[in-house]
Amino acid sequence: MTEKLLQKINSPADLKKLPESQLPALCNELRRFIIDAVSDNPAHLGANLGAVEITVAVHYVFDTPDDKLIWDVGHQAYGHKILTGRRDRFGSNRKKDGISGFPKMDESEYDAFGVGHASTSISAALGMAEASQRAGNTTRHHIAVIGDGAMTGGMALEAMNNAGINHPNLLVILNDNGIAIDKNVGAIKDYLAGIATSPFYNRLKDKVWLMLGGGTKYGHNTRAIVKQVGNAVKGSILRRSNLFEAFNFRYFGPVDGNDVERLVKLLRDIKNIQGPKLLHIVTTKGKGLELAEREPVIYHAPPGKFDRLTGKLVSKSPCDGVQPPKYQVVFGRTMIELAEQNPKVLGITAAMPSGSSLDMLMNKMPDRAFDVGIAEQHAVTFAAGLATQGFVPFCVIYSTFLQRAYDQIIHDVALQKLNVVFCIDRAGVVGEDGATHQGAFDLASLRCIPNMTICAPMNEQELRNMMFTAQLNDQGPWAIRYPRGRGTMKQWKTPLQEIKSANGRRLSEGNDLAILSIGHIGNEAAKAVEMLHEEEVEAAHYDVRFLKPLDEKMLHEVFKKFKNIITVEDGAIAGGLGSAILEFMADHQYSATVVRLGIPDRFVEHGDRNQLIHEMGYDAQAIAAAARKITAAFSPHHH
Ligand SMILES: Cc1ncc(C[n+]2csc(CCOP(=O)(O)OP(=O)(O)O)c2C)c(N)n1
Questions:
Q1: Residue 181 CA: which ligand 1 atom is closest?
Q2: Mean pLDDT in the chain?
Q3: Helix, strand, or coil here: 437?
C-alpha cells in the first residue's frame, strides 16, 4: 500500500484538512507504517496498533498542542509521534540520538508530559487542568489516555479521587483492551469486562449514543442533550453502580475504540461537556496484525525483527546450552526450586510475570505466586504483611519501577526488619527504553536504608546462591540486583549453596592497582584485567558482591596494599559503590587515589546498552584505559 494520505501529514493541522470519510484509510496507513517500522527496528507494537484510531480521532477533534494530550506509560504513542512531525525520524526510534520510544517534553511541543512509568497521566492532566483554570483559560481541554492495566495503579485511582471534587476540563479516555503486558488482573479488570459485555450497559450506551448522535453537529443543543444524558445516567441505578460515576466523573461507554468515525463524533460531543469525564473505549491490542492480535503478550514488544506481512518473528538462536541464560530465567527457575524446598517461599510481581520470569512459578505452582497489577507500592507492603506471618516473599520488581515503592521499602519492610527478598531485575543500564527505564538508582537509594542487605551476582551461580541464602536469613530485607540480559554460564544449574553475607571475593591478584566491582559489570572488569595483563599492568580484581554490609576485612586488605583503586558499578556513582568505598577510606583514615566508574550524575538517554556503557566509561576498554591512566600517573615505569 502506498501511504498517500500519511505522506501529507506533518502536523495535526494537516490531519484536520482530511474529510472524515478518509480517516479510516489514514488509520490503515498509519497502522501499516508502524508495523513496517517496528518489524525492522524492535520496539513496542501491540498497544500502538490498538491506539491508532483514538490517536487520529483526538488529534482530529482537539487542538493539540494547545489542548493537552497526556499518554499513560507512552508505549502506545507512536501514532501520535508520527502525526506530530516525527514521521521522517521514526526510523531512529529508541536509537542513540534518535527519537525516544516514549513521549518526552523536550522532543516535541505535542508531548505534553514525559512518561514511561504507568498510571501518571490523570494526575498530570489534572495538574494542567488546574493550571489552566487558574490562568482563566476555560476552553483548553486536558486529555489523559490510559490503559486498563495502568488504571489498576494506585496513582490513577488517587487522581480520579482528587479530580472528582474539582471541576476541571478533564477527559480521561480509558483504553480498555483487557490486557496489560500479560493478562490484566484484579477486580477493576473484571468490572470493566462486566460493563463491556452487560446487555444492560449496552442498552444504555445505545440510548446515550443515539441522543448524542442527533443534531449535535452544529452544537446548538449539545448542552441540553448532554444534560439529558447525564440525567439519564444519574436517574438510573447505574449512578450507584458505575465505578467512575462514583468518582463524580461523567461516564461514557463502552464504545468500539477501533471505529475512528464514531470516535470523532463522540469526542466532538463530549468536548462540550464541562467537568471530569471518562470515555471508556474498547480496543483490540495488536489490531491489524493477526499474529499480534492472537499473541498479545509476545507482540506487546516483539523480542526481535519480524516479517512485516505475516508478523512471524525472524528466528532467534536457541538458548539452552548454546548461550548463557538470561538472569531473569535463572531467577524464574530458581524460584521453583526454592518454593519446592521451602513452603514459606512465595513470589510476587507487579504486572511483570513474563518480563521477570515469575510466570514460571505461576504456571508450576499457581498458589505460590501473585501478580498484584501495576502496583509496586502495594506489592512491597503486601510482601511485608506476609513476612510478619513468617512467609518469605520474593518481590521481583525492575529497578526502575521499584523507585515507586521507596517508602514502602523503608517504612513497611526495613524499619520493621521484615524478611522480604527484593529481586531487582533490569538493574543498571537497560538501553533502548531510555531515561525512564534505566536501572540507575537502586544501589544508591537502598544503601542508606538501615537493616538492608544489598548484593549483586556476577553470574548465574552467584544469583542462585544469593537467592538461596536470602531465603534462609532472618535479619531483615535482602536486595539482590541483576541486569537485563544474559549471564555468563551455559551450565548454570549449579547446586544451591549458602554464602556468607558481607563476603567479597578476590578474583585476581596484582600489585599495580585494585579494581573493585559489584555485580555483572564485574565481567567487564575481569576482561579489563586480562587486557592490562598483556600490557604488564597487574591489576588485582575484587568482586565486592555485597554493597551492604561491606566486607570490611577485605577492604582493609585492599587499602593497606594499594594506592590506586578503581571502583566499577552499573549504577549511579553518587551514593553507590564508589561512594561507599570513599566513605570507608575516610572513616579509616586511609589515603589512595580512587577513580569511580559508573553512571555519572545525569539521566541516561536511550541507545544500545554496550554503546552507552562504553561512552560512560565503564566497559572493559574504558576500565582498562582508566587503569592505564591511574598507574601511569603514579608509577613512572608504566605508561
Ligand atoms: C510503574 C510501572 N510498572 C510497570 C510498568 C511496565 N509496563 C509497561 S506497559 C504495562 C502494561 C500497561 O497495560 P495497559 O495500561 O493496559 O496498556 P496496554 O499495553 O494494554 O495498551 C506495564 C506493566 C510501567 N511502565 N510502569
A1: 11
A2: 92
A3: coil
Ligand 1 center to 297 CA (angstroms): 12
Asked if 609 is an active-site residue, the reply is no
Distance CA 543, CA 108 (A): 44
Asked about 404 being catalytic, the answer comes back as yes
- Indicate the pTM of the whole model: 0.94
Q: Residue 592: how many CB atoms within 10 A of its CB?
A: 17
The ranges assigned to domains in the chain are: 6-198+238-300, 199-237, 327-481, 505-632
The residues, ordered by sequence, that sit 6+ positions from 530 with a Cβ below 8 Å of its Cβ are none
What cell was used for 30? 498509519
First to last CA, the chain: 61
Distance 567 CA to ligand 1 centre (A): 35
- Does domain 6-198+238-300 bear CATH number 3.40.50.300? no
> Residue 409 has which C-alpha cell?
521499602
299-336 pLDDT, tens digit each: 999 999 999 999 999 976 555 568 999 999 999 999 99
If we measure between CA atoms, which residue out of 396, 522, 398 comes closest to residue 459?
522
- The residue-averaged pLDDT of 250-276 equals 95
Helix ranges restricted to H, 346-398: 353-356, 359-364, 376-388
Q: Give dist(CA 398, CA 164) in Å, integer.
A: 32
